[in-house]
Amino acid sequence: MGLLDAEPGSVLNVMSTALNDTVEFYRWTWSIAAAALWWYFVSKGVEYLDTVFFILRKKNNQVSFLHVYHHCTMFTLWWIGIKWVAGGQAFFGAQMNSLIHVIMYSYYGLTAFGPWVQKYLWWKRYLTMLQLVQFHVTIGHTALSLYTDCPFPKWMHWALIAYAISFIFLFLNFYVRTYNE
C-alpha cells in the first residue's frame, strides 16, 4: 500500500511526521551552530590572554594598538554575539575567521622550529593579505544580509561593517609598515 493509496489521515500523519523531523533537524543544527560559536568565543578569550602574556613577558614590541584593539574588542563583541544572536549570520564570520587563525597559528608554529624552517616561510605577507580579504568578504556578506532583509538585528549589521572597515585600515597600515619598508 503506497502513500497515495493510504487513508487521508495517514497522509496527514506522514506530512506531520516529516514536518516535525524537519523542525527537529533545524533545532539540532542551530544548537550545533550555537555550541560552535560558544567555543569560538572561548578561543577569543585564549587569544586575549596572548596580549596579557606579551605584557607580562615585557614583549612590548609585540603589543601594538592593532593587537590590543583586535583582541580586546573581539572578546567583548563575541560575548554580545553569543549572548543575543548566536546563529547563522554570526556563524559565517566565525568560520572564516577560524580558518584564517588556523593558517596564522600554523605559520607561527612553524616559525618556532627555528631558522632551518623559517627560510621557507616566505608567505607571511600573503597571510596579511588573506586577512584583508576576510574583512572585505565580511563586508560583502553583511551587505548582502542587509539587502536580503536577514532577521539579524540591523544595528549589528552596520556595526559589523564599521568594525570590518576599522580592521581594513589597521591591517593596511600594518601591511604598509611591515612589507613596504
UniProtKB/TrEMBL annotation:
EC number: 2.3.1.199
Pathway of action: Lipid metabolism
GO terms for biological process, alphabetical: fatty acid elongation, monounsaturated fatty acid; fatty acid elongation, polyunsaturated fatty acid; fatty acid elongation, saturated fatty acid; sphingolipid biosynthetic process; very long-chain fatty acid biosynthetic process
Membrane disposition: Multi-pass membrane protein
Pfam families the record matches: ELO
InterPro entries membership: ELO_CS, ELO_fam
One example GO MF annotation: fatty acid elongase activity
Top-level enzyme category: transferase
Name used for this protein in its record: Elongation of very long chain fatty acids protein
This protein's encoding gene: Elovl4
